Amino acid sequence: MNIPANLKYTKEHEWIALEGEIATIGITDFAQRELGDIVYVEIETVGETLSKDEIFGSVEAVKTVSDLFMPVGGEILEFNSELESNPEAVNKDPYGSGWMIKVQVSTLTELDELLDASAYQDLVG
Q: What is the pLDDT of residues 73-117, one digit of tens each?
């Protein structure tokens, strides 16, 4: 299982990468494996400002639909529109082409509450 050391993680299996005050967010390799083949990514919150732990969208797999939670609070700037026609990118490359949203982070200290790679590894076993 791939758990990049340079990212932060949530207990709900989202990952976050920070560049300045802009965060890129997606779901982890563990999450996409658990979900199975992803057939649809729904995110209708672009332009909205959401708090940490609020739902920003959902992922639909063949067997289930799973909510996506904000790892930190902020304004959703962009949705990865490639996922509209190619949702399986989340399965193939969850940390690359399968990213989901970009967020202007409101409170950078919220990142300190997230899991590092080692703690996330312990969570998922």
A: 999 999 999 999 999 999 999 999 999 999 999 999 999 999 999
Q: Tell me the whole-structure pTM to 2 decimals.
A: 0.96
Residue 23 lies in a domain: yes
What does the angle CA 16 – CA 55 – CA 24 come to, to the nearest 5 degrees? 20
Tallying the residues shown for the chain, one arrives at: 125
Q: Note down the domain range covering 104.
A: 8-110
Q: SS3 of 116, please? A: coil
Place of tokens 């050391």: 5
pLDDT tens, 21-72? Answer: 999 999 999 999 999 999 999 999 999 999 999 999 999 999 899 999 999 9
Nearest to 18 by CA among 88, 80, 86, 107: 107
Please give the DSSP secondary-structure letter assigned to residue 60: E
Say which CATH number the domain at 55 has. Answer: 2.40.50.100
| Residues in a beta bridge with 54 | none
